From TrEMBL:
Pfam family of the protein (one): MurB_C
Gene name per UniProt: murB
Cofactor(s), names only, from the UniProt record: FAD
HAMAP family in the record: MurB
Catalytic-site annotation from UniProt: R177, S227, E297
Enzyme class: oxidoreductase
Localization per Swiss-Prot or TrEMBL: Cytoplasm
Domain FAD-binding PCMH-type: from-to ranges: 34-213
This protein's name: UDP-N-acetylenolpyruvoylglucosamine reductase
Origin species: Sporolactobacillus shoreae
Pathway recorded for this protein: Cell wall biogenesis; peptidoglycan biosynthesis
EC number: 1.3.1.98
One of the GO BP terms on file: cell division
GO CC terms: cytosol
Length: 308
């Protein structure tokens, strides 16, 4: 199916045709401020719209890519073919007893603040994670000793055919930076977090402490994709990179942070290609020096730019 036909079909599936965009530059949708164009970008506002889009894509064999806040993704400079679904318009958060139900596009930081507002403890670790709820479910996001699996009761997802499925904690199979959502190609629509009553002042104190640590250690002043690499067994990626003398190494406009070696920052109009080349260079150097393989935590998606 041609791009224009996909575009026209999707406009009929959503309540506002302005939420379907052709040849949309994706750098505005990523924390690295890089990325090429999407053939067709759509911003659904309901689960029904998402399911309709997924069903349409499946029966027409159109590839689908899901984007949330774009905090842990590098989109190649050639962009993404097919349909890109951005979930950020679905961001409702509500309370049911000691459970918080949050839609996929809500920032996980906002969910942690909502928990604080209602004196619920368990999500303090998430107060500085820049991603969405959908992203947290996709990769079992975590920080400072806590992770999404610790507090997640169940999730609602859409499968590739556009059917809604409820998955409890066991079926979500959440591991280190992985889950059934990512492994099975599901679209996470909402998560239910089971929390415990706590002391509001103590919850805030812990969130303030973790926020201070993050601001002290992480290069928040530049665009980045967060921690680039997963933690190798028995090591810390940042320490390996630091001990390899790689801090300050730059390719194009992207640099290994001098503040935290586990981060790569866009300091001068860097491109996705700059990021990817620097990632490969760091992996090669660490392998040569320590014989340790670094595997990316950041998702690298899309296509390389074709030669003019």
């Amino acid at each position: 199916m041609q791009k224009i036909d996909i575009y026209n079909s999707l406009k009929k599936m959503v309540s506002d045709a302005e939420r379907v965009r052709c040849d949309e530059t994706l750098s505005a949708y990523t924390f690295t401020k890089t990325g090429g164009e999407a053939d067709v970008l759509v911003l659904p506002e309901s689960y029904e719209e998402i399911c309709d889009i997924l069903h349409f894509a499946e029966i027409n064999a159109i590839p689908v890519t899901i984007l949330g806040k774009g905090s842990n993704v590098i989109i190649r400079d050639g962009g993404i073919r097919g349909i890109v679904i951005n979930l950020l318009k679905l961001k409702a958060i509500r309370l049911e007893g000691n459970c918080i139900i949050a839609q996929c596009g809500a920032a996980i930081i906002d969910v942690s603040r909502f928990a604080l507002m209602h004196s619920l403890t368990g999500l303090e670790f998430a107060c500085g994670i820049p991603g969405s709820v959908g992203g947290a479910l996709f990769m079992n996001a975590g920080a400072y000793g806590g992770e999404t699996a610790d507090v997640l009761d169940h999730a609602v997802v859409a499968d590739t055919s556009g059917s809604l499925v409820r998955l409890d904690r066991e079926k979500l199979k959440m591991g280190y930076r992985s889950s059934a959502v990512s492994k099975n190609g599901y679209v996470a629509l909402e998560g239910t977090f089971s929390l415990a009553p706590g002391n509001k002042e103590e919850i805030k104190k812990e969130m303030d402490r973790l926020t201070s640590l993050r601001e002290l250690k992480q290069p928040l002043e530049y665009p980045s994709c967060g921690s680039v690499f997963k933690r190798p067994p028995g090591y810390f990626a940042g320490k390996l990179i630091q001990d390899s003398g790689l801090q300050g190494t730059r390719i194009g406009g992207v640099e290994v942070s001098t503040k935290h070696a586990g981060f790569m920052v866009n300091v001068d109009d860097g491109t996705a290609t700059d990021y990817i080349q620097l990632i490969h260079y760091v992996q090669k150097t660490v392998k040569a020096k320590f014989n340790v393989d670094l595997h990316t935590e950041v998702r690298i998606i899309g296509e390389d730019r074709t030669a003019e």
